[in-house]
Amino acid sequence: MKIAILGAGESGVGAALLAQAKGLDVFVSDMGQIKDQYKAKLATAAIPFEEGTHTLDRILDANEIIKSPGIPDKAAIIQEAAKRQIPVISEIEFAGRYTDAKFICITGTNGKTTTTLLTYHLLKSAGLNVGLAGNIGESLAEKVIENKHDYYVLELSSFQLDNMYQFKADIAVLLNITPDHLDRYGYSMEKYAASKLRVAQNMTSSDYFIYNADDQNIKKAFDTVAFGGTAIPFSLEDAEGTKVTFKNSTIALSLGTTEATIDASKSSLIGKHNQYNTMAAVAVAKLLNVSDESIALSLETFQNADHRLQLVGVAKDVSYINDSKATNVEAVWYALEGIKQPIIWVAGGVDKGNDYSTLEPLAREKVKVLICLGKDNKKLERSFNKVVPIIAETDSIEYAVRMAKLLAVPGDVVLLSPACASFDLFDNYEHRGQRFKEAVEKIVLKK
Questions:
Q1: What is the domain count for the chain?
Q2: Residue positions in the annotated binding site?
């Protein structure tokens, strides 16, 4: 059996190592330059590879091709494989063949990483033998070589789901569907939604699909009649048939014979979007018989991934929050909605055609100062100059933090939630968030 692997990143190299471990004839090809860490893994395992080119004859001689999620189906090599009827699959599809572990699969346009990390934390804290993999940055295939876990919590992007065919989740979670990556789907929301719904494919009556019943795109795309698994809708808006709700800091669940109420008052997560994320993660935990007490305690101890409404520090009763991951208007709306104190808001960067009008009511109610951080802040200023009392601008994150410190009074929140891409001043959103954190530590916390 000959396997060709396209792309030598985390997923591709993991798949190559698993293929070799299973005695398959494997070849790895990457059109770009392979990172040193992955090159070293391939070389140590004596797996043949190439970079900077695709040797078509060798790739198309394979019985099966495993491709990186980043390679679109319209790529010439994928089109040629289709003509020759060579199956093209994802690393997740491939890895799923070699383990009997249960899969908890989480997708959605927004909130995937937070929900995946929270679900993993709830299960691991309860003592379950659980692994973490997928779009979160860890290869499932590489973990399956040792195959030492009973459960895997997987974050899945639509690109990964597109090349999954026989794979089946035991528990699937769909958080939301909003326009994103539409260039990969012919600018069709219907095709993008269908991609997300693949997380629930192949399910039988013993499998569970946990989904957001308040999301109109999910309601439109999900055919409950044809669905083979057990559907568990969650809702903040009392949607019909809801099995999981979140009110007054309490999550209530009705899952067949399991009825539970969970105290979420000490959760570290802020905002309405995180109430949705928390409902989904808690539903998974209850389906796996985690106790109410364990869940409540784990909600309190959970630490989210960096740059997602992350509390950097508190000084003189002013909280500094790093939400650099909020690169679009919708993410900022959730941040502003979730914070109850007066806000000094740091925003800006490379505008992506943003319509800020949905933020105006929240900004009028909560934002006392807007500090525009970017090379071109005209659009932000125009959008909020009649809404926010004080607007300043800078291209220095240190200056932004100094200004925020001077203008803040006890009880305020200084919030970095940019609504924009970062690459006018920073390498990426992580770099921007790290620089904010460093500036707060140096100027405010004086570490």
A1: 3
A2: 108-114
